[in-house]
Structures are given as structure tokens and as C-alpha cells.
Amino acid sequence: MIEPDAAEPLYRLIRRIRKPESLRELMAACLRSVHMGDPFSADEGALPEPPQILREQVSVSEITIGGIRCAIYSLVGNSTRLPLMLYMHGGGFVVGCSEDTDYITRMLCHSNNIVVVSVNYRLAPETVFPGALDDCEQVLQSLLDDAEQHSIDSDVVFLCGDSAGANLAASLSHRLGKSRVTPKGLILLAPWLDMALESYSEYNRLAAKGIVFDAPFLAYARASYADFDSWTDPFVSPIGVPPRAMPPTLVLTGSADPLIGQTLKLNRNALNAECTHIQTVVYEGMPHCFYSFPNLFAEEQDCYRQIAEFVAATR
Q: Tens digit of pLDDT for each residue in 209-258?
């Protein structure tokens, strides 16, 4: 039997010659350094700014909630309590932050007359499941406990996320269950719902091409976030949540997204369960993250229109 510290002499040597010491942490550091901007690039203006109306009419403040850094998006001049949308950014659980999804959260705030709180949950591999999910739940509970200070209507709560963040949003909705917090709606942008990636023909066909992300990245992200035995846990792979246990849900994705098969499976599950409260919108030819930047794809504006109609109908 190998003792847990059998490799310690090797690690002592590695600590003297390399930081970070583990390969998974080294890979995470490389990914984070280039995730939303190449440090060697000279093109400083490459990232488009949000439209002027979003800069003028949406205010952004940073706050620490329960020890977790969050960005709060609110309408300039608002003096009434508004519904809350808790937003969880994507990045495969290993990269990303609220700054990366600034355009998305500004749009959600402005087009829905709603307070959006974007959570900078702890990332893998330093924090594994259920750490990120715990962070999101803690932020939500703290916001509701202090709703008046944040001008939030605690009776109207939406959960939203993109990619891995959509996984967290769906998992958090399931965890809340019949607690005092009952989400009015769940909005999933290009969701990663199932760790069994290779079981989907769409993934095997598209992920190898590297449309926004590729198979090696997702394999690393998956192994960093959760161990193999937990991949079928519905809090890790919320594709396993019964559709009837889900709140009103809107799913938006593109047909060129390697994760499209998971959305299609969720849609089949809903149809088989005769659930009409789960809506799916698939944009033909759209890749992962098509909704992330202004005026890059014409379909992006329709995506936010669909969300606004969904929020208006369920709030």
C-alpha cells in the first residue's frame, strides 16, 4: 500500500524549482494568463466596449459578500426595490470572472429592469466541488438577508449563468429545492449540464475543432472540478435533475456549440415528462459564447429579447 505522502520527497524538490508545484495548478495558471487577453498582444483595444447606453444607464459596484467578491449591476437613478438575478460566469470552473461577462450582465440589468449580482466564486483546481456551488448559495442567502440595503425584492429571484456558470445556476436551483428561496426562473446560456461529454455525438463531432474551446480543455476542467465518482451527481451534472423539479427555464444555445447535445437531451427529457415550462431556443450556426460581445453576431440581440420576454412572463 502506498502511503499518502510517498511522493513528498519529489514534491520537496519540485517546490524548489517550480511554482506552482503541481501540474494541474501550472495548467490553470497558463489558462488564466491568456483567458480574456493575450499578455503578449499589442492590440490593447481588441475587446469591444459595452454600448454607450449601457455605460450611462447601468452602474457597477464591487462588494464582498460573505467573503466572496461580487459585482452588482443596477439601474442609474433607481430608488425602488427590483427583482434579483444572480449571475454565474462561465469558464469551465477553472477560469473567468465577473469582468469577463460585463457586457452580458449589463444587458441583463438594462433590458430587464433588474438588479444583477455577478458572483466570483472560487475556481478549480484550488477549490473543488462543491466549493463554487457553496459560494453561489452563500451569496444568494446573504443578499436576501440584506435585501433592503441592496434595493432587492427578495420575493422575485432569477438564476442565470453561461456555460459552466449555467451548470452552477441549474445546480443551485436544484439545491434550493423547497427552501424559502424559490427561483421565479432559470436562464441557461449554452449550458454545460453533463460531465459525460463523450456520450454526445455532437460533442465528439464539434469539440475536436476547437470552437471557442476544445476537448482537451474540457477534459482538464472536468477533472479539476469534480472527481469521477461524482460526475453522475445531479449537483455536478444537472442533466439528471427531473424536469418537473425545475422552475420555469429558458435555455439558449447555438447549433455549432459542442455542448448542444446536452441542451437537446434536456429538451427531450422535458417533452417526455410532458413539461411545458422548459423552453429551448437554438440559434442555427451559432458557436459557444455568441451572446458575449456586442454586435459580433446578429443573433445576440434576439437572445436578449428572448430573455426579456421570459423574465417579464415569469416575474
A: 877 788 999 999 999 999 999 999 999 999 999 999 999 999 999 999 99
Predicted pLDDT at 2: 47
d(CA 202, CA 258): 6
Calpha distance 158→112 (Å, rounded): 11
- Residues facing 32 on adjacent strands: none
User: pLDDT, tens digit, for every residue of 144-156?
Assistant: 999 998 999 999 9
Question: Alpha carbon 47 to chain centroid distance?
Answer: 20
In three state form, how does the secondary structure of the chain look? Answer: CCCCCCCHHHHHHHHHHCCCCCHHHHHHHHHHHHCCCCCCCCCCCCCCCCCHHHHHHEEEEEEEECCEEEEEEEECCCCCCEEEEEEECCCCCCCCCCCCCHHHHHHHHHHHCCEEEEECCCCCCCCCCCHHHHHHHHHHHHHHHCCCCCCEEEEEEEEEEECHHHHHHHHHHHHHCCCCCCCCEEEEECCCCCCCHHHCHHHHHHHHHCCCCCHHHHHHHHHHHCCHHHCCCCCCCHHHCCHHHCCCEEEEEECCCCCHHHHHHHHHHHHHCCCCCEEEEEECCCCCCCCCCCCCCCHHHHHHHHHHHHHHHHC
Cell of 41: 498582444
Judge if pTM exceeds 0.90: yes
* 94 contacts 223 by C-beta, under 8 angstroms: no
- For cell 427583482, what's the residue? 83
pLDDT tens string 103-127: 999 999 999 999 999 999 999 999 9
Which structural domains are found in the chain, ordered by start? 49-314 (3.40.50.1820)
Tell me how crowded residue 245 is: count the other CB atoms within 10 A of its CB: 13
